[in-house]
Amino acid sequence: MSEAAQPPLVLHVVYRFDTGGLENGVVNLINHMPAGAYRHAVVALTEVTEFRRRVKRPDVEFISLHKPPGHGLKLYPQLWRLMRERKPAIVHTRNLAALEATVPAWAAGVPVRIHGEHGRDVDDIDGSSRKYQWMRRAYRPFVSQYVALSRDLGRYLTDKVGVPAPRVSQIYNGVDTQRFAPGPRPVLAGCPLGDGRGQFWVGTVGRMAKVKNQTLLARAFVLALQAAPQLRERLRLVMVGEGALREEAQALLDRAGLGALAWLPGERSDVADVMRSLDAFVLPSIAEGISNTILEAMATGLPVLATRVGGNAELVEPGRTGALVDSGDAQALAATLVDWASRPVQARQLGEAGCRTVQQRFSLDAMVQAYQALYDRQSQASRRGHSRH
């Protein structure tokens, strides 16, 4: 097929292409967008890992630039050449760490430059950092259109960064409701907790990193069993993910004498089965955009207990699909765990309502259609602007 006859190319630029919610969103978008609409390539400023195998389309190019720490000015010539050679119709950067790639995209004449804000910066969880606001303002002239994954992030762009409201589109993440769906409780390979029958398993899935704050859940689990020791026979904790907090959380549980009632296996590839093995999902993070794992848990029919940060309140309806607590409040987390474990039928009803909500509002098809429509609108606007010149 000649270059002119091929679908236009979207160049997705991320800091690192590895396990994570942002990257999972890129995978879902590429895998589910009609092949005849757009081609795709992924550029990681640092590394592309084995996570690339999640992409099912055979025509996707992956490029690692091995960027050292610090500003990527030295990468600009390489990025410029790459974009001149590949001739993307759209460059789509994500989060502050990749925003700088909009400059060489502009210099290379890429007609559409979209930037997505997926979540808070780890060291700016409330968006108050003037440095980060200034950095985003500095790159603002090079961005054609912004995508905010939550209303909270959209307000940040308009109110703090000064982006005109018409240049901000809000698109929620979508969840694969075929992969994540209610089903029979599986027996998880290597799990020492048994088959879960007669028990109430609470759990979380995600990078064991400071921003995800899994040690708060470990503390809440300890507090729950101290407050309701009768639940010791039934309440179990599952924390799936790898990272710096894994050993810390395990040590906290061991010191409380509860290590045998918890399972921290590290990273797993069977996340959908892990979700189906749980009775409730907990997200104790200190910052979020729109959480993929909350949506996956809801799609699986789980009640969700989350901290009231970022876009979590846009997903979880207290008393209908789950509960929200203040960030860092281990006592409130523990009280909800005791309540749900003591009233599993009511907890299950919250999960069923969450499953219906995902099917109605957060489908993968809706997300893909929204991005494709955005790409189409921006491309058409660019062509109209070019024809006027």
Would you kindly provide a written description of the structure presented here, covering whatever features stand out?
It is a single chain. By secondary structure, the protein is an alpha/beta fold. It is built from 14 helices and 13 strands. The strands form two sheets. A seven-stranded parallel beta sheet has the order 3-2-1-4-5-6-7, with helices on both faces. The longest helix has 25 residues, at 364-388. The mean pLDDT is 94.
H/I helix tally = 14
Radius of gyration (Å): 22 Å
Q: Which term fits the overall shape?
A: elongated
Class inferred from helices and paired strands: alpha/beta
Percentage of residues assigned to helices: 25-40%
**Would you tell me the overall average pLDDT?**
94
How many strand segments? 13
Straight-line N-to-C gap = 30 Å
Strand and helix order:
EHEEHEHHEHEHEEHEHEHEHEHEHHH
Beta-strand content estimate:
15-25%
- Low-pLDDT segments, ≥5 res: none
